[in-house]
Write a structure and sequence with these properties.
The protein has 315 residues and is α/β, with parallel strands linked by helices. The protein folds into two domains: 117 residues, ornithine cyclodeaminase, domain 1, CATH 3.30.1780; 174 residues, 3-Layer(aba) Sandwich (Rossmann fold). The chain contains eleven helices and 14 strands. The strands form two sheets. The chain has an eight-stranded parallel beta sheet. It has a six-stranded mixed beta sheet with strand order 1-6-5-4-3-2. Helix 2 packs across helix 11 and helix 3 packs across helix 11.
């Protein structure tokens, strides 16, 4: 059995490769090739533990990920997301690989936002506003930089030192200007692309702050009673999700406006896979506001894990 640490995964995985692999996985899902049971979640005192499995037939990989989200971990200087992933032998069902999946989760989530940004943002997008400066924020900005010629990013985190450290690190890594912002509004006011990567229960973005033509990737809070975007943002947007069924069960950004009567399920324009395979168009003009809401799917884990094990010499 192969054991891969977080440092092993970091060495073997790049965001560019992950974007391409995740895009292919969404094609499989939309075409009915992939197998993906519903996620199960166990709610605990300080967080949650979930189990996610998927089988990508074309990519020839089957995986299960067990992960937890514990927002209070920041008080102990620990990651808020903890995860382990298993890869199976498709003939025997035996576990062939066990890998730390915290970094993998951050990259695969960044990758899906890269795919969404490719289809939904304006091609001339230059400025990014990001709220949430943890590991996920880093891979989100990295992925967006892979698909658009980004020149500048404004970064906000409620922890002042976190946004300063993020700005210094990501400026150097990506070769762009990353500027700490004093408030969420300052981060998004001039943005062409907005990223929210938080565990917030209350909205961190208001629709009144967004200018025409902006694209929003909302990838943080995914509990039914939590949201990063206010109702106005959802109402005024073309709304795209990773999986409609999952978003209506887990995404407070959508569930709460429905409960308020501000929208119905029909407000969801498309699943991302529908756009990827050309069933529906993505962005159709320069003025529309687009939102991609992701709750995270097991096919993303499987796609990225497949890349890693191939580099290790596994078929």
């Amino acid at each position: 059995m192969l054991f891969l640490s977080e440092s092993d995964v970091q060495r073997l995985l790049t965001v560019r490769e992950a974007i391409d692999a995740v895009e292919e996985a969404f094609k499989e899902l939309q075409l009915g090739i992939a197998v993906m049971p519903e996620r199960t979640t166990l709610m605990l005192k300080n967080g949650s533990i979930s189990q996610m499995s998927a089988y990508l037939k074309k990519a020839n990989v089957a995986t299960t990920k067990v992960f937890g989200i514990f927002p209070k971990n920041v008080e102990y200087n620990l990651p808020t997301t903890v995860a382990t992933l298993l890869v199976y032998d498709l003939e025997t069902g035996k576990v062939t690989t066990v890998m730390d999946a915290a970094y993998l989760t951050a990259v695969r989530t960044g990758a899906i936002s890269g795919v969404a940004t490719k289809y939904l943002s304006r091609k001339d997008s230059k400025n990014v506003g990001i709220i949430g400066c943890g590991m996920q924020g880093r891979t989100q900005l990295w992925a967006v930089r892979e698909v658009r010629e980004i020149e500048r990013a404004y970064a906000y985190d409620k922890v002042e030192n976190a946004r300063k450290t993020f700005a210094e690190e990501m400026s150097k890594k990506l070769g762009i200007d990353v500027i700490p912002a004093d408030s969420p509004q300052d981060a998004v006011r001039n943005a062409d692309i907005v990223i929210t990567a938080t565990t917030s229960v209350e909205p961190v973005v208001k629709g009144e702050w967004l200018r025409d033509g902006v694209h929003v990737n909302a990838i943080g809070s995914y509990y039914p009673n939590a949201r990063e975007l206010d109702t106005e943002t959802i109402v005024k947007s073309k709304l795209v999700v990773d999986l409609k069924r999952a978003s209506l069960e887990e995404a407070g950004d959508i569930i709460l406006p429905i409960k308020e009567g501000a929208i119905t399920e029909k407000h969801i324009y498309a699943e991302l896979g529908e756009i990827v395979i050309g069933k529906k168009p993505g962005r159709v003009n320069e003025r529309e506001i687009t939102v991609f809401k992701s709750v995270g799917l097991a096919i993303q884990d499987a796609a990225v894990a497949g890349l890693i094990i191939k580099k290790c010499g596994f078929k």
